[in-house]
Amino acid sequence: MNIITKTLFYQTRGENDILDITEDVTRELNTTKMKNGIVTIFIPGSTGAITTIEYEPGLLLDLPNTLEKIAPRNLSYEHEKRWHDGNGHSHVRASLIGPSLTVPFADKALTLGTWQQIVFLELDARNRRRKIILQIMGE
């Protein structure tokens, strides 16, 4: 089994920026000689998240609206009381979604569903320069 680590970089516009990174992951996978295996997509940091969605305008609105109901921006967060950085809700939202995703690939193709894309969610209250780590394992 081979293991290759790659890095992707993105500049975000801040909270609720949702980036479809599927093509970038596919491109990096195709630079390897691996045909079958798994790729783990990981965001270092505690205010970003990785998941899959159908990347379409309705869901690009529905997902942030749902997160606002689950972890509202205007609640009192202990993190905010301590650090005063305006992103207590960002940390909670990111922890609910998670920092990583593992996707199998077969014959050099990600095994995603027809309407399924890999997305990075910027949940911090400000714009950020983000690094996403890909660890590709396979044969």
Please state roughly what percent of the residues sit in beta strands, choosing from under 5%, 5-15%, 15-25%, 25-35%, 35-45% or over 45%: 35-45%
Principal-axis shape equals: elongated
- CATH class term: Mainly Beta
**Using only CA atoms, what is the Rg?**
16 Å
- What is the N-to-C succession of helices and strands? EEHEEHHHEEEE
Number of strands: 8
Given the structure, what is the number of helices?
Answer: 4
Mean pLDDT: 97
Measure the end-to-end span.
5 Å
CATH superfamily: YjbQ-like
Poorly predicted runs are none
Overall number of structural domains: 1
Report the biggest beta sheet as strand number plus sense, adding barrel if it closes: 5 strands, antiparallel
Based on the coordinates given, report the CATH architecture.
Sandwich
What does it look like?
The protein is α+β, with helices and mostly antiparallel strands. Helix content is 28%, strand content 37%. The longest helix has 14 residues, at 57-70. It has helices at residues 22-30, 57-70, 78-83, 88-97; strands at residues 2-11, 17-20, 37-42, 48-53, 100-106, 109-110, 117-122, 129-138. The chain is built from 4 helices and 8 strands, in the order ββαββαααββββ. The relative contact order is 0.39. The strands form 2 sheets. A 5-stranded antiparallel beta sheet has the order 1-8-3-5-6, with helices on one face. The chain has a 3-stranded antiparallel beta sheet with strand order 2-7-4. The chain has a single domain, classed as YjbQ-like (Jelly Rolls, Sandwich).
